[in-house]
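Listing S7. Sequence submitted for prediction.
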Amino acid sequence: MLAKQSTKRNPTKQISFDSLPIWQQQIISSIKSLRYASGLNADPWNKFNKKAIQSLRPYIPYLVHETETPGVYILVNRDYRPLGTNWSNMVDYSAYTHMHISHAEVVQIRPHYFHFQGWANSVDGNFFMDDTAPWISKENSKDVLVRLEALITALATKGVAL
């Protein structure tokens, strides 16, 4: 959740988790879950758990994908499904309007890609590749976490702590 912060010297705008777009809430939730399953939280007894991370596969952002509507994008998991969805038949991304991302938001996300793919004006980019998937190693998990945390920080309103 986003923490409320205020000081007399440097007041900050207050944003609640629930007021964020669904796709940003999903990224924050995946960060928290991945941090725990990877053994990267503060608990010294918690270890890297490959099976737990693999169970998060539907929730971990993999790619920003262009929809059929020009200028509208969606975050998808490794299976090219909208975040939080499992395997199914063909997916109509237009049915997930609550998860759509604007071009302006994609511009903010793009610097946090692990690997850019596509032509010069394309938006497609991955947060990890098959050989750098977070379920392979604790180091890969950490790298994905750093990318996703930087992405959320870049999207956050200035002065708001995550």
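Caption to Listing S7: primary sequence and predicted structure tokens for the chain studied. The first strand starts at residue 63 and ends at 66. Residues 1-12, 158-162 have pLDDT under 50 and may be disordered.
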